[in-house]
Design brief:
This protein has about 450 residues and is of the alpha+beta class. Strands 2, 3, 4, 5, 6, 7 and 8 form a seven-stranded mixed sheet that branches. A four-stranded antiparallel sheet has the order 1-11-12-13. InterPro entries: CBS_dom, CBS_dom_sf, Mg_transptr_MgtE_intracell_dom, MgtE_N_sf, MgtE_transporter, PRC_barrel-like_sf.
Length: about 450
C-alpha cells in the first residue's frame, strides 16, 4: 500500500478526531515554522522571538494544551504564559495586550518543550503500529486554548524545514497524524511524577497486541526501548519479548538492568525463556538466574540441561494433566485458570495414579464433550486411534518434526523413561528451532 493510501485509510479511521475537522485542519500552525518567529504586542511592536513552545503533554487532556512560550529577548530567555497569547498564526504570535508579564521559566509536572523534547524524537504511531519521528508538530485553536493536535512524520516535511523561511511556516495537513494516535517517548522531558508522565501513553500502548509491541521494541532506540518496557506490566512485556527476533531480544536483555531482565525472563513461557537464555553467555545467564525466584530458576536450569537440537531443548514444561475420575467440567475449570497461557496449551494429558501417560486429549475434544462426561469415557474413545504420540527428551528435532507431521498434530508430549509427561513440544517451536535463518515463524502471531 502506498504512503498516500495509508494516510487516506488512517483519516477514515480517525474521522471522530480533531484533525478530521475541516476547521481545525485549515487553522493548523507548524511548530517548526513558529520557532524563530516574531512575537508582537497589540501595537505591532516586536517583543521577542519564539525559542520553544511549552505544552502539558502528560496530563488528562486528549490534546495537550499550550501553557506558554519560551521567548528570546535580546540575550535573555524568558517565559510567556499562555493567557497572554492573542493569536497564534503561521510563523507569528500576537499578544492580547501591549503590556506582558514575562517570567523565569520553571518546568511544571507534565510539561515539555515541544521543539526540544518532541520534534525529531521517536514516537509510536499506535494506529499505524510503527515507530516514527516527528518531522513537525501542529498546533491549533480548540475551544478557548491553543493545543497540540497532530504530528507530521513525512519526508517532504523534513525537506520543507530545510528550505526558505516562507516554506517552513506552511503546514501539510494531508500528512498529519492525530495526536491521539501517538504515544511519545520523552523521559527526560518532564520532572513530574511517573503517574502523570505515563497516563496517556500507557492507555494507548495497552491496545496493541504482543506481536505489534515486539515490532515496536525492535525499532526503538536503546533508551526508548527500556522506557517502553518500564511502562508495560511485566506480563505484557514478557508476551512482547516472546514475539521478538532472537538477536533483538538478546540485545534488549543485555541493555536492561539485571533485576529487570530477570523479572522479564521469569514472566516468559519456560520454552521461550530457555531460548532467550541460551543466546547469552554463561556469566550473563547465571547472573539472571541468580536474581530469579528459586523455583523458576531451577525449572529453567533443567531445560537448559537438554541439548538445543533435541525435543527436551525446545519443549515447554507447562502441562495440564488430569485423571480418569475427573469430569470434563472440572478440567475446563482448570484450563480457565491458565487462560494467560492459552497459546502454550492445545491438549490435556491424562495420567494414572503413578503419573504415567494414558491419553492426550485435544482441546477440541474437550470443547464438544458434555460437562458431565467422565474423562474415562474420552480415554476409552481415544483408545481406538492407538496410543498417544510421544517423544523422548533426547529425540532430535528432525525426528520430532517427522513424527509431528505423521500424527497431524499441533504438539507432541515429551515423556521420560517411565512414560511420565515432562513437557510438550509445540509446532511453532519446532519451526523456530529448525528454521533459524528465516527468523521466528510465530504461528501465534499470525493467529492473533
Amino acid at each position: 500500500m502506498s504512503t498516500s493510501a495509508r494516510f487516506r485509510d488512517r483519516r477514515v479511521h480517525l474521522e471522530r478526531r480533531a484533525t478530521a475537522s475541516k476547521a481545525v485542519r485549515t487553522s493548523l500552525v507548524s511548530l517548526a515554522g513558529l520557532i524563530g518567529g516574531p512575537v508582537t504586542n497589540q501595537s505591532g511592536e516586536e517583543v521577542g522571538r519564539v525559542v520553544d513552545v511549552v505544552a502539558r503533554l502528560y496530563g488528562v487532556d486528549s490534546y495537550p494544551p499550550v501553557t506558554g512560550l519560551i521567548l528570546r529577548i535580546g540575550r535573555r530567555r524568558t517565559f510567556l504564559p499562555a493567557d497572554a497569547l492573542g493569536k497564534v498564526n503561521a510563523g507569528h504570535v500576537r499578544l492580547r495586550t501591549a503590556r506582558v508579564d514575562l517570567r523565569d521559566f520553571a518546568r511544571r509536572p507534565g510539561e515539555v518543550l515541544l521543539a526540544k523534547d518532541v520534534l525529531d524524537h521517536q514516537l509510536v504511531d499506535v494506529d499505524g503500529v510503527q515507530v516514527t519521528r516527528a518531522a513537525d508538530l501542529y498546533l491549533a485553536p480548540l475551544v478557548d486554548q491553543v493545543v497540540l493536535v497532530g504530528v507530521d512524520v513525512s519526508l517532504p516535511t523534513l525537506l520543507r524545514r530545510l528550505g526558505p523561511r516562507r516554506w517552513q511556516t506552511r503546514p501539510t495537513p494531508e500528512r498529519v497524524l492525530d495526536w491521539q494516535a501517538v504515544a511519545p517517548f520523552a523521559e527526560q522531558a518532564t520532572e513530574g511524577p511517573p503517574e502523570v508522565r505515563l497516563r496517556a501513553s500507557r492507555a494507548a500502548l495497552h491496545r496493541l497486541r504482543p506481536a505489534d509491541l515486539a515490532d515496536i521494541l525492535e525499532d526503538l532506540g536503546r533508551t526508548e526501548r527500556q522506557q517502553l518496557l518500564g511502562w508495560l506490566e511485566p506480563e505484557q512485556a514478557a508476551d512482547a519479548l516472546e514475539e521478538m527476533e532472537p538477536a533483538e531480544l538478546e540485545n534488549l536483555l543485555r541493555e536492561a538492568q539485571p533485576e529487570h531482565a530477570a523479572r522479564l525472563i521469569d514472566e516468559m513461557e519456560p520454552d521461550e525463556a530457555t531460548d532467550a537464555l541460551r543466546d547469552l553467555t554463561r556469566e550473563e545467564r547465571e547472573a539472571l538466574l541468580a536474581r530469579m525466584p528459586k523455583g523458576g530458576a531451577a525449572e529453567l536450569r533443567r531445560l537448559l540441561a537438554h541439548r538445543e537440537d533435541t525435543a527436551g531443548g525446545a519443549m515447554t514444561t507447562l502441562l495440564i494433566t488430569t485423571r480418569r475420575d475427573e469430569t470434563v467440567a472440572e478440567v475446563r475449570g482448570r484450563l480457565a485458570e491458565q487462560a494467560e497461557h492459552r497459546t502454550e496449551i492445545d491438549a490435556v494429558a491424562v495420567v494414572d495414579g503413578e503419573d504415567r501417560l494414558l491419553c492426550d486429549i485435544a482441546l477440541f475434544d474437550l470443547a464438544v464433550a458434555e460437562d458431565t462426561t467422565p474423562i474415562a469415557d474420552l480415554v476409552a474413545w481415544r483408545a481406538q486411534f492407538g496410543p498417544p504420540d510421544t517423544v523422548q527428551a533426547d529425540t532430535s528435532l528432525a525426528e520430532a518434526a517427522d513424527q509431528l507431521v505423521a500424527a497431524r498434530a499441533s504438539s507432541l508430549l515429551v515423556v521420560d523413561d517411565t512414560d511420565r509427561p515432562i513437557g510438550r513440544i509445540l509446532a511453532d517451536d519446532l519451526l523456530d528451532a529448525m528454521l533459524p535463518e528465516r527468523g521466528r515463524m510465530h504461528f501465534r502471531r499470525f493467529l492473533q
